[in-house]
Prior knowledge:
By secondary structure, the chain is α+β, with helices and mostly antiparallel strands. Helix content is about 45%, strand content about 10%. α3 (about 50-60) packs across α7. It starts with a helix and ends in a 6-residue tail after the last helix. Belongs to the flavin oxidoreductase frp family. This is Nitroreductase family protein. Keywords: Flavoprotein, FMN, NADP, Oxidoreductase.
Amino acid sequence: MTDRFSALWEERYGPDVPVPSVTPDAITESLMAHRTVRAYLDTPLPEGALEAAIAAAQSASSSCNMQIWSVVAIEDQARKDRLATLASNQAHIRQAPLLLVWLIDFGRLKRLGEAEGQPTENLDYLDTFMVGAVDVGIAAQNAVASFEAAGLGIVYLGAMRNNSEAVAKELNLPPLTAVAFGLSVGFPDPDRPAHIKPRLAPSVVLHREQYDASGEQEGVTRYNDVYAAFQKAEGLPEKRWADATLPRLASPKALHGRDHLRDVLEKQGFRLR
């Protein structure tokens, strides 16, 4: 293993998690170096970086090759400002030179069926919606890997669903097209560096042959301490992972408007049988 891999491993999992005996490749090391970036320079993206990232996204696996997603690229400052307002007023949406809004897009397949005179009844089923949600996530992560390889930073934006109906109107989305999430992209500001956030140890999330939660509590307890230490080092409230995570599940209020998402999807033409 390389010294860099060992250092990334410790940053990702904290001390005392054994480093595997492996000769890591550059791709794995690049992925392990991922960090969420919320402070950007106003430098434009390199020429062709967006197109290369979309090609990487389209090179991802796609269920039955249905290619059931689309993405809207936004660079206009006024539109970014309006979308930032709709997404909890996150400053990095305004600051980053590029905002991508990723979409679950049934509309293209519906129009294809109509053009070919073929039925598309299965677009009404929940499983097809899950296909779209999975495929757009896989595609976006390929794009992220491409952006990061070019020296860019990103942050995913679930808050783009806080006011999904207004976002759909702003982007002129057709029926059967829904916002999945946003993605801010730009060069990280070196004066406000982002750091690798620790994760649960592999022993908590990796199960072999069958699901086994027998060691879960021990792993979560350890991670609570690692997470709290990371928060303190970042100058943030020294809270455990459980204290940061469980309030997000406590009541619909914590969803910031996303508790009405089913209604918005129905207005967009999704039936979700």
